[in-house]
Structures are given as C-alpha cells and as structure tokens.
Design the sequence.
C-alpha cells in the first residue's frame, strides 16, 4: 500500500523559499506512468494543483506558479520535493503531496509570516 508523508518547516518568512519533501513508501516513485503531485489548500481559495513530477522525472507546473516553483526527486530515498520561492502570506496553506489520484499525504500546514 502506497503511503506518503510530507515534511518541512511550518513557518517561512516572506520572500524566502518554502521547501517541502514527500517521502513515499510502498512503491517506487519510478513506477511506470505514475505521477507525483503537490497540491495546496487555503481557506477561501479552494484546492490548487501546483505541479507534478512523473515516473520519468519530467516536471509539470501550474502556469500561475511556474516562475517560482521547482519540483525534484531523489530516487535513492524514494522522495520528491517542492521548492516555492519568493513566498508571500498568500502562500499560506495546507500542502499535500499525492501519488496519482488516490494516494495522498496527510498534509502539512505552512504559514508565511515574519
């Protein structure tokens, strides 16, 4: 059974870079034709798909975040990571990592504040 767990700082200062890691267990992130995503949700804004990295390492980003987002992976650790630069309080949200459409982490709250 695939399980995902987000980790990273819960508080980030404005203008800094938000960094989160998703550790996957129960299956390799190189599983053929499988995609690993980052999604966030904040009050009043709903759920927002941020981007994904595929089984082959190809990345896909939301157009609205493309200038600030980077998703990478470490296959030796079975992890994939999110970096979001130049954060503002509007980036405050619960951040989720997901595998395909059915496997989700529990989410981690990230607050952007000085």
Sequence:
């Amino acid at each position: 059974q695939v399980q995902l767990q987000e980790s990273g700082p819960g508080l980030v200062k404005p203008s800094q870079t938000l960094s989160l890691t998703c550790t996957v267990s129960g299956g390799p992130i190189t599983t053929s034709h499988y995609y690993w995503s980052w999604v966030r949700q904040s009050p009043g804004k709903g759920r927002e798909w941020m981007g994904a990295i595929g089984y082959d390492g190809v990345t896909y980003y939301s157009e609205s975040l493309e200038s600030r987002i980077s998703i990478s992976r470490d296959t030796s650790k079975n992890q994939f990571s999110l970096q979001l630069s130049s954060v503002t309080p509007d980036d405050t949200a619960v951040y989720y990592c997901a595998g395909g459409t059915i496997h989700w982490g529990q989410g981690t709250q990230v607050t952007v504040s000085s």
